[in-house]
Amino acid sequence: MNLLIVGAGAMGRWVADTVPADVAFADTDPEAADAAAAAHDARAVPTDTDERFDAVCLAVPISAVESAIAAYAPNATDAVFDVTGVMAGPVSALREHAADCERASYHPLFAPENAPGNVAVVVDEGGPTLDAVDDAFAAAGNDVFETTVGEHDGAMKTVQSGAHAAVLAYALAAENVREEFATPVSAALDDVVDTVTDGTPRVYAEIQETFDGASGVAEAAARIAEAEGEAFETLYREAGRHESVDPGALGRESDGDGGGTAAEGAAADSDEGGESR
Questions:
Q1: Cβ-count burial of 145 within 10 angstroms (0-12 exposed, 13-18 middle, 19+ buried)?
Q2: Where are the domains of the chain?
Q3: Which CATH architecture describes the domain 2-148?
Q4: Which residues of 39-54 are buried (b: 16+ CB within 10 A; e: fewer)?
Q5: For residue range 148-166, what is the model confidence (pLDDT) as tens digits?
Q6: What is the structure's pLDDT at 106?
Q7: Alpha-carbon distance 124 to 162, whole Å?
Q8: Residue percentage of the chain with pLDDT more than 70
Q9: I want to staple 42 with a disulfide (CB 3.0 to 4.6 A). Which of 37, 53, 71, 196 is the partner?
Q10: CA 23 to chain CA centroid, nearest Å
């Protein structure tokens, strides 16, 4: 497979590490493309390349993915896919600009340094090239699971935007205390704060702008702050009933905004990478 990876950041490099292919990198930062190419026995190409590839992977920031799909879909002969972390916009753009190609949107739910992990996927039009990508992700130990656009983007409001907002709010509200005062809960939260704040601020900002989970966290915090006595106890019990849903219990019908069903197969947050040309 000849694979063009648009975006030479951490996620683009992860794709290069994971998918056996003759890889070329394109990035608005030529030095990043050159460095990624040197590290992966690949090559760098200019962002305005008109070279054709079997597959094109978009590993760019959320804000750049739709324009990147429009710009680079013509470079693909067989398949176009993204690994940005949002699905509504990319799936729609793929349908418009890669109508004659296999097309899919993947979301590796981990930072590349924490691979392998779970990978959500919507395959809008499958075929042998994307089957090979799926197989490569699975062979690297990732658990690839099918979803729909609506289910995925709705989940990100909780597991990314809401979770990040809650963790950052705790960190901003917390006062410095001696380590001896740490409780099991506060110590665990401090560890999560370290994980979240070890990332790239722009990436986390784009997640908040894309999935509005922070407002729900703020509203819940206000309810807790105002509650007293029995009202607080009610909220406490309500919080204790929160649990993740068994995927087998969820229906995954097609969403009105696109998405369809995902093929079985074998990719966190979006990382810094090249933007569209």
A1: middle
A2: 2-148, 153-242
A3: 3-Layer(aba) Sandwich (3.40)
A4: ebebebbebebeeebb
A5: 999 999 999 999 999 999 9
A6: 98
A7: 28
A8: 87
A9: 37
A10: 21
